Amino acid sequence: MDSSRGKNCESGDAELSPTEPPASAEKNEIVPLSGKPFLTFVVSWSHVHDPYQVLFPKRFYPFLPATCVPVTLSYGNRTWKMKYSCKGILRRLCSGWKNFALDTDLKVGDGCVLELMDSNNILFKVQILRRGVVPVKRDKGLSCDAPISID
């Protein structure tokens, strides 16, 4: 096990290895959400560099346990085991998130959707919207006076 993985999160028994070969996850297509609770975010520096973590917003707390538990992320036909931490006032995915971010080649600016498929065993289905997937007109998005409009 790489000692640098998850070093900025509480230690635990998080399984850091994906369960399937890496090639197939890249072919995951975007599908409609199922109606279960979900979280969306744009990938930022802390998601793909130290401390390699995802912080949950307070509005998502009611769907999450009040204790630290193992979590499974599912993307394509692969799964990753990691740790959900709720120490103090922060709730986050940490130990194991680094592996997921590296294995799926997440980049700053990508979009992520985490849909909570099983709240008892904490299973999230992940969809990744790669940066550049949404077409942008050259004059849009350069300032707050020229926003990008997505229909």
**Which ranges are low-confidence, i.e. pLDDT below 50, for 5 or more consecutive residues?**
1-8, 11-27
**Chain-averaged pLDDT:** 79
As for the CATH topology of the domain at 35-57 and 64-129, it is At1g16640 B3 domain
CATH superfamily heading of the domain at 35-57 and 64-129: DNA-binding pseudobarrel domain
Give an overview of the whole structure.
There is one protein chain. The chain is mostly beta strands. The protein has a domain of 89 residues: At1g16640 B3 domain (Beta Barrel), CATH 2.40.330.10. Helices cover 7% and strands 26% of the residues. Strand 6 and strand 7 form a beta hairpin. The chain is globular and about 45 Å long. The N terminus is likely disordered. One of its GO terms (cellular component) is nucleus.
Question: Could you give a short description of this structure?
Answer:
The chain is globular. With 151 residues, it is mainly β.
List keywords for this structure.
151 residues, mainly beta, At1g16640 B3 domain, seven-stranded mixed β-sheet, 2 helices, globular, REM16-like, DNA-binding
Set down the secondary structure blueprint.
Blueprint lengths: L37 E5 L2 H4 L5 E2 L13 E7 L2 E8 L6 E2 L3 H7 L7 E8 L4 E7 L22
Parallel strand pairs: 3-7
Antiparallel strand pairs: 1-6, 2-5, 3-4, 4-5, 6-7
